[in-house]
Amino acid sequence: MEKRYFFQKIIGMILILSLVFVAGACTPSTPPAGELDMGGISGEQEVYNIKFSTWHPPAGEECQNTWTPMLEELQERSGGRITYTPYYGAALGAGPEHYDIVRDGLSDMGYFTATWTPDRFPLTDVLSMPVKVLGKDVAVEIGNEMYERVLHEEFSDDVKVLQLNGCVMSFIWTNKPVRTLEDLKGLKIRSPGGLQTYMIESLGAEPSFIPLGDVYLSMETGVIDGIVTCPMLYKAYKLHELGKHAVVATFGCVSEGVIMNKKFYDKMPVDLQAIVEEVVRNPFELTGGLTEEVIQACMDSMSAEGVEFYELPAEEAERWYDRFSEEVVKKWVGDMDKKGLPGKETLLNFKAVLDEQGVDFPAFPVEWEDEVEQYR
């Protein structure tokens, strides 16, 4: 009986050992630490979610065809290590607050308008001069070059400037036809601020600063007679439903750009920083949004809805630009000089950059033309 029990015990132990051996043969060995196969990624990598803010309306050209595609490109190029949350339509604050919104970290990246913060970026307003920029991609090339030459000195270390631009040329849009300087006398025109205010005054009209979101009602009720802005915003805010007359004469546009909170930028690894700088350097060129062709299509669509685009005859255009030259361009240089800032040097640099890009500056003072050569 004891022998039978002994043999049964031996056989049981052999069976258990056999099962252990088989199980061990079916279990993969654990590799040393650091050699785990994670699809080519060694260890866990942090994901950086960028909160992007802008005052542009969500349904507008900028958000639909530039900002969202740009953010998607960041996500794709980073392999998902960069994600994003958009805050469009001034969701985090009004347009003039956007530099501080990014600087203070309420958003991580955003589109700010330097012109809306008077005296804060005085030299950067050179990008607002009345030049004939027809595509936002070209405007960015000009702005970025000016940032490298001069304008970087105006920005503090608590933001990372990713690009600057002077937008595309604005027109004057009114609820009744304008053909001459005399037609403008006494009209109340909404200004985006900055140099555009002086341009409106120089033509005999009365500038008024009203938030873009309030312009429709102001035009509808006769509080203002028109507005100076670019075609995209005119359409985005549906103002073409009211003011059916546009004078195609350049009023320049506001100075703007994309910035990133410096603390957020600094905590990103170098390879992701490089992706951000490459993608955001000229998002309009990258995405094809707001190029000359896109803006022309925007104008064509408004024309089909009854907006009349009037080209000033050469003689009348010269009258307008002569006033801009004397009462805006030269005045700005004088104001900068009084503040101890290099106004004329900045303007001459700007003209040299415009010439490189083949962009016309019809209000540039003729007597200063020879001085531009040293900045080319």
Describe this structure in words.
The longest helix is centred in the first third of the chain and has 25 residues, at 2-26. Helix 6 links the parallel strand 6 and strand 7. Helix 2 (61-77) packs antiparallel against helix 10, helix 4 (136-149) crosses helix 14 and helix 6 (195-202) crosses helix 13. The protein is an alpha/beta fold. The chain has 2 domains: 48-167 and 254-293, Bacterial extracellular solute-binding protein, family 7 (D-Maltodextrin-Binding Protein, domain 2); 171-252 and 307-375, D-Maltodextrin-Binding Protein, domain 2. The chain contains 14 helices and 11 strands. It has a 6-stranded mixed β-sheet with strand order 7-6-8-5-9-11. Strands 2-1-3-10-4 form a 5-stranded mixed β-sheet.
> What about the largest sheet?
6 strands, mixed
Specify the number of helices.
Answer: 14
Based on the coordinates given, report the CATH architecture of the largest domain.
Answer: 3-Layer(aba) Sandwich
Number of strands: 11
The chain-level mean pLDDT equals: 90
Going across the biggest sheet, name each strand in turn: 7-6-8-5-9-11
Structural class: alpha/beta
What assembly state would you assign to the polypeptide chains in this entry? single chain
CATH class descriptor of the largest domain: Alpha Beta
Instruction: Report the uncertain regions.
Output: 1-43
Distance between the termini: 110 Å
Number of domains: 2
